[in-house]
Design goal:
This protein is α+β, with helices and mostly antiparallel strands. Helices cover 35% and strands 27% of the residues. It has a 5-stranded antiparallel beta sheet with strand order 3-2-1-5-6, covered by helices on one side.
Length: 164
């Protein structure tokens, strides 16, 4: 007896290919959303680094200490100019960085007054002190900004992505 091998019909092949394309499209959308959140977190970390660098540059150019405070009521980091006696003849701008609404910040455990918390302090020689680390979260993604106590240079520390 001769057995005839049955092949797939054109409609069956088109249906399988269509289902495969839909599944791959949904997978690509899920991956794209995670990648865009990571890019947004990287951009926010970069913006925060620039803010810290501007405050550090002000401390070095004016010869006065500059402090970055967390104003939790208004959800922003700010560096208020020193008082008139400390300022001398140099005019110093007030610098602010608004924290986006969907960002959570990890405060130090020993924070006595979280409504106005000193985060970083920059000295006229370029050095820094203070908390030395500030971590923020965008969903499952974390970024940590660290300030070198010796050089005062801000940097983003390597953080692992948290899986949900």
């Amino acid at each position: 007896m001769t057995h005839r091998r049955q092949s797939f019909s054109l409609i069956e092949l088109v249906a399988v290919i269509t289902i495969a394309v839909i599944v791959m499209g949904l997978g690509a959308l899920a991956v794209r959303a995670q990648v865009s959140d990571a890019r947004r977190a990287d951009q926010l970390a970069h913006d925060l680094l620039l803010f810290c660098a501007r405050v550090r540059a002000q401390a070095m150019s004016t010869g006065t200490e500059r402090v970055i405070h967390l104003n939790s009521a208004e959800r922003r980091l700010e560096s208020v100019p020193p008082s008139k006696e400390e300022e001398g003849d140099v005019r110093v701008a007030e610098l602010k960085w608004n924290i986006p609404e969907n960002i959570d910040m990890e405060l130090p455990q020993d924070a006595e007054n979280p409504s106005s918390l000193e985060i970083f302090r920059f000295f006229p020689d370029g050095g820094g002190s203070g908390t030395s680390r500030l971590t923020f979260k965008l969903g499952p993604i974390e970024r940590t900004i660290a300030i070198s106590r010796l050089t005062g240079l801000p940097r983003v520390e390597n953080t692992e992505e948290k899986k949900q």
